[in-house]
Amino acid sequence: MGAGGLVGGTVLVTGASRGLGREAARWLAERGFTVIAGTRAPALIPGTDVLALDVADEASVRAAVAHVKARHGRLDALVNNAAIQIDGTDGVLDLPLETLRRTLETNTLAPLRMAQAFAPLMGKGGRIVNVSSGGGQLSTPAAWAPAYCISKTALNAVTVQLSEGLKPKGIAVNAVCPGWVRTDMGGAEAPRSLEEGAASILWPILEAGPDVTGGFWRDGKRIEW
Prior knowledge:
Elements: E1 10-13, H1 19-30, E2 34-39, E3 48-52, H2 58-71, E4 77-80, H3 97-118, E5 127-131, H4 146-166, E6 172-176, H5 194-206, E7 216-218, E8 221-222
Parallel strand pairs: 1-2, 1-4, 2-3, 4-5, 5-6, 6-7
Antiparallel strand pairs: 7-8
Helix pairs in contact: 1-5, 2-3, 3-4
């Protein structure tokens, strides 16, 4: 570990089969990290330890913890990137509650489950990054996909709670907005590249000091909740 960000170590990235997760895993591998790429679907991600992982399934998460402990012994950083967006442009008054439940399970409860499961493998100076969204900001309300936006607002609250809960262990927890990125979810019209989005996500790991915790960030700059 350097004076600021981590230099080397073992990092688990969820949702790594495509998009921002895959790009973040690639960046870390190129910088000498041992990267565990968590994927639901089989994927070949060069330079990584590909791990079958469904973050919404408790048994799958338990198996992932056993794998990481047996093969790597510890974890230095966790990137909770896996997420779904299954609602469209209908307003919140037309939002099926089952859609919200499914979205919360993956986008909010799963990052909490992952943090609870993997924190025992992390030591002082460890990092947890929750990939959030500007859609989750209460300061600038968004309504373009209400279930997704609600889930990211809740994820921000989980981030603050985890930050407080893990301070005694010296583990920093932050939420990051990668911006509107050209991915399958973001679409071809998005203004930001995968590289820009991944750089934003990885800032708390590669650049921020170990005392930077409990914040919401975009491109290394704090943004409003």
